[in-house]
Amino acid sequence: MTLLGDRQDGPACLKSFLLLSQRQEEGEGHTGGVIRCAPSAFRGLLLLQPRSVLKHLADFMDMAGFRRLTALGLAVLLAAVGLISLAVALVPAGGATASALVLGGVLLAGLLLLGRAVVRQLLDDEYERQELEIGQECLREAIDALPLGVAIYDQHDRLQLFNKLATELAPYRYGGELIGQTFESILRRTLERGAIPEARGREEDWLHERLAGRGKLKRPLLRPRSDGRWMHLYEISTPSGCLVMARLDVTELVQKSMALERSNQQLELLSATDGLTGLANRRQFDQHLYSEWQRSMRSGLPISLLLLDIDHFKRYNDQYGHLAGDACLRQVAGILYDCAQRTGELVARYGGEEFALLLPGADGDVAMTVAQRCMDEVAKARIAHADSPVAEHLTVSIGVATVVASQDLVPESLVRCADEALYQVKSSGRAHYIVAPCPA
Hints:
The chain is α+β, with helices and mostly antiparallel strands. It contains 13 helices and 12 strands. It has a 5-stranded antiparallel beta sheet with strand order 4-3-7-6-5, with helices on one face.
């Protein structure tokens, strides 16, 4: 298909037209392509080179259109000849034959002008039709070239156009005649196939919700697919009332986002975890204490804290070495972790050989029960400590404090009370626990 000129003038279009014709005749013959030229250029062609135009007019129009145009021209010519003959026949013998001929000439000229106007209109219409076809074809090719699935619906929500990528996605991938179908009918067919996982078991409710929100998306909707891919769904209303739906594959972006989120969670976990024992570190303990303190203020429930110290741990390190000391800390950490059995209780390494057990909602009796359990479980482990002046195995000392949070106190008040109790234990022989009044 060749387009000559962009509304160029007759001589310029004629030159291009004849050059193209010469090339086609010198080559392998006519290729069957369509030659397009602006109507104004064709008007110049008709005036300047009528034989060339008639010779190649079939290249501009399809053969059926050319035959119709030829038939129309012959009809105009025959009508003109018939009118002249009629005019001559009506003139009486010996009459003014010259007048009849003049009248016939006028009629012939008028008919020829009318025929020329009709031809010009036909050419204009043909050019506009071909221009429209070119525009539509360009639009289809452009939509197919987009890296996303596109479907266009008219004002009555009937499908008018969808591209190749859309055929890979539900509800357009199941074949059948879709053009002209409403969005609801297309969705119903998809629901019958069970192709929408989130709608299974509640198809009608899901369909009602989907149609109610149609065209009201303010931002893209992220949806997973059964094959693990993720899609962004766009719905854009045009000023004329049409609806453009687009689906963009964002699987790679979502996977990167999820990987980044996992990395951040892992980093946050590492920043809140003691590297040696795997328990919460001092930073996480402080954060947990603050949040539970606020909860205690709102609910009026008590909060208890156990501060635990391994007795004579320096001597243990000197006796068995630091690697054995690290292993001992890990073993004690595991024992204490098992002693905290209720939801919300936190076991943390407070520093060195000190550990903290935060017990939200636990009163003094519960706190003492947990303290005794910790001492018993450590004793059951029978961790050898030959250089301990207290016992032949490892022992622990525990300071216990319980308080109901109030505006007059701060979270550090609870820590200070438990630390006071631990100091009293160490001062009175170790290997037991003491409950300190709080506030101290």
